[in-house]
Amino acid sequence: MINTTSSSNSMMSSSVTSTNGAQSPGLKTYFKTPEGRYKLQYEKTYPAGLLHFAHGKTVTQVTLAHLKDKPTQTAQPSSSSLGVSSGVRSAAARLLGGGNGSRALGFVGGNGGSKSVSGTNRVGSLGASSSNGLLGNSNFDGKGTYLIFNAGDVILISDLNSQDKDPIKSIHFSNSNPACHAFDPDAKDGHDLLIGLNSGDVYSVSLRQQLQDVGKKLVGAQHYNKDGCVNNSRCTGIAWVPNGDGAFVVAHADGNLYIYEKSKDGSADPSFPVIKDQTQFSVAHARYSKNPVARWHICQGSINTIAFSTDGAYIATVGRDGYLRVFNYNNEQLVCGGKGYYGALLCCAWSMDGKYILTGGEDDLVQVWSMEDRKVVAWGEGHNSWVSGVAFDSYWSAPTSDGTGESIVYRFGSVGQDTQLLLWDLEADEIVVPMRRPPGGSPTFSTASQSSHWDSTCPVGTLQPAPSMRDVPKLSPVVIHRVHTEPLSGLNFTQESVLTVSREGHIKIWIRPGSAESQSSNSGSLLSTSLKEKPLFPGKAGSTGYKQMT
Amino acid sequence: MGAAGSKLEKALGDQFPEGERYFGFENFGNTCYCNSVLQALYFCVPFREQLIEYYSNNKNLADAEESLLTCLADLFMQISSQKKKTGVISPKRFVQRLKKQNEIFRSYMHQDAHEFLNYLLNELVDILEKESHAAKSDPETSSPSGKIANGPKSAHANGAQKEPLDTWVHKNFQGILTNETRCLRCEIVTARDETFLDLSLDIEQNSSITSCLKNFSATETLNAEDKFFCDKCCSLQEAQKRMKIKRPPHILVIHLKRFKYIEQLSRHKKLSYRVVFPLELKLNNTVEDADAEYSLFAVVVHVGSGPNHGHYVSLVKSHNHWLFFDDENMEMIDESAVQTFFGSAQEFSSNTDHGYILFYERLAAGRTS
């Protein structure tokens, strides 16, 4: 018994040091924020030599996928008859799947889905699947959280809650490189995962089915835009329409966006009319009830990212022409939008309440767009290169206010090609007036100077020109942290952590300050001491901005 | 010969721009540094047009005495008046003239493209200034304007104050930097202006041109061994110094300092850093006139892992198409291919093609791309 404990401990420590050993000198395994330390919990990547060709030509994106318990036709009551609330059950799954017990058996698996390398693994994972599964010994029937990411010509799936660095599944695409993907946890008929390729091809599949299959090919896929017959330019973004009953949209590098409906015939109707004016927004509908059902021509040059508002009412696009555009999805109308400072916009993301949109791009700025004002309300300065990923932290709640404010504070993050993760705080009532001078304050900058552009209200359905540098209030980051040695391509917030991903497919999972406790049972000792660090800077979070040394 | 040209012609098809010519340059043994820069300059349309205009206005003069200016004008004329739309041309006369004139470029060794560009532009300026002075040699060129007298401004060796001449080369490439030094004792700011034809920027790994420009204009403290002599205090004082762009040029040439002298090795080393450059750029370090937008139209690329060998190629934007020139070869490339020349995010990468000199042209105000 003592032996097993010590051996499992030594395994732990060795795995921790190997995590640290993978670090380049100068990269820290934690970063401090006003609310405490974020610590590097896991890293995810893929074994060297997995990729065959064209590595580097694609940029890794990561999608988080929460698989729910497998719905079984008559099993609904029986699953509840197990009498476990979801919270308890998830804790149980964690313990059974990724807990110490299973590790002592000599394998790792967080969600009950262990690598299917040998028979013993399967036995070990029974614990997780039997807790909810009526289907006996097949794997991946339970709930779980997975990371889906692309690298080269491969789609990789990792178990978020396992400490295993390597993916549990890789799906090879012989014809073209996957470029983007999306997951819908509430998808009705099983097909919940979308994959868009460089060739323009699009697949919808069931994630669970992929996990259960032992092969290296996509299984049970519905194939759209086969061989690029409707559009052969690269897929740049793909998204399920929220509450869209199986509808999804695919953005392409030629400025077009297509709408598909899962229920409709897969065979394509490529007969969309020629686009007369490349610079103008236009919508064309398919003549027959075939996929894709509609084409939206958005802009000249590539669409780089698309994002739906949480309620699905709006879709935002950013692209090569530097414009953010916001459309009403249902009536197919442009609502508002505007140009960034300069260069292409690369990424965008909505706040949960739909009031703000973040964009990032080639001007090194993080831009905050207000849907109420229909204009840019702040520029975040702090990246030393292009901003490649932005996201609001919807799980974050402001440190309990000091009595002064009802003001809503948003926390958001950005990553860039400068290899850095930046965190920002935005106070909703603060951004009405410019509240921070740009670092190193230019003498010509005055808070009083507001041009006519700034005051004017922007009519619906029009695009704003690029604002002038002196007109836009500046934000400074709360945290600057260099997370990788290579350029980053995206970030994600989960309840427990922040995920960063590099262009080359290296993912790091940074656990939140408060989450250490719940995870400590899971991942060993080490993390248990650092709980509930007091915010380093009490008071208004917004005023603790990072001071740039210039 | 011409195979590359006909391929390009085919690729462009009926989109071949009216009146435009695409010609590769023959290589005479390590003259790629020259070829790559010449392509970039040829597709710097205002420069090309003014050079050709100059040539046609000074036909007699050109026949009289050969200079780098006449050789360049001759070469550009030769290209633009070709019957064929594409092909290969030999810049032989120009290269011979260059070698005759400057021994640095005489050897067959690998040369620095930026050094060449710098030499060429300064040489053109000198020739134009001399001509202009010769033309109006009788009326004395006195009365130095008071405005620009607050600094030594390319004062001539003989001490005579020469009115700075605004040649068409200046009009294209010249900008003014202002060097502000604030004495930390008396707080007085001394501003000294200097002109530039290109900006040489220090680079960092995984950064952007925007960030390099910011660093270029970052405030620097002069202290310890490096104090500033304040005229007011009449002594060495600590001071703060920063460089800003007072007048942004029409054509902004940015040179990335990829060849760095490493003292321990007592030789130059190539920095393969990934430095991203946007296709549109605004300057963040101007005194005023911010928000002026530039558009990238040419990139001179250094290929190779070291400073003393390698190859130069260029990317050029012409009539909204990007073209790749490699001596006599050329092909059309997608705009998105420009990003393959940013550099390597990690050392020891197999990618050795790195953007070295960037050419941006200022867009007319109010124009949105």
- CATH fold-type name of chain A: Methylamine Dehydrogenase, Chain H
CATH architecture of chain A: 7 Propeller
Shape verdict of chain B: globular
Task: Report the C-alpha radius of gyration of chain A, rounded.
Answer: 24 Å
Domain count of chain A: 1
Decide which structural class fits the backbone of chain B: alpha+beta
**Secondary-structure element order of chain B, as H and E?**
HEHHHHEHHHEEEEHEEEEEEEEEEEEEE
Radius of gyration of chain B from the CA trace? 22 Å
Q: What is the CATH topology assignment of chain B?
A: Cathepsin B, Chain A
Greatest contact between two chains: A-B, 33 and 26 residues
Tell me the number of helical segments of chain B per DSSP (H or I, 4 or more residues long).
Answer: 9
Q: Give the total of beta strands of chain B.
A: 20
> What are the low-pLDDT stretches of chain A, counting only 5+ consecutive residues below 50?
1-22, 74-109, 112-138, 432-453, 517-550
Number of helices of chain A: 9
Low-pLDDT residue intervals, each spanning 5 or more residues of chain B: 140-161
Brief sketch in words of this structure:
Chain A: Residues 1-20, 515-530 have a biased composition (Low complexity). The complex is a heterodimer of chains A (550) and B (369). Chain A has 550 residues and is of the alpha+beta class.
Structural notes for this entry:
- The complex is a heterodimer of chains A (550) and B (369).
- Chain A is of the alpha+beta class and 550 residues long.
- Chain A has one domain: Methylamine Dehydrogenase, Chain H (7 Propeller).
- Chain A is 13% helix and 33% strand.
- Chain A contains 9 helices and 34 strands.
- In chain A, the strands form 8 sheets. Chain A has a 5-stranded antiparallel β-sheet, with no helix packed on it. In chain A, strands 11-12-13-17-15 form a 5-stranded antiparallel β-sheet, with no helix packed on it. Chain A has a 5-stranded mixed β-sheet with strand order 18-19-20-21-29, with no helix packed on it.
- In chain A, a hairpin with a 3-residue loop joins strand 19 and strand 20.
- The longest helix of chain A has 20 residues.
- The N terminus and C terminus of chain A are likely disordered.
- Chain B has 9 helices and 20 strands.
- Chain B has 369 residues and is an alpha+beta fold.
- About 6% of the residues of chain B have low confidence.
- The longest helix of chain B is centred in the middle third of the chain and has 23 residues.
- Chain B has one domain: Cathepsin B, Chain A.
- The chains are: A alpha+beta (550), B alpha+beta (369).
- At the A-B interface, loops of A face strand 6 and strand 15 of B.
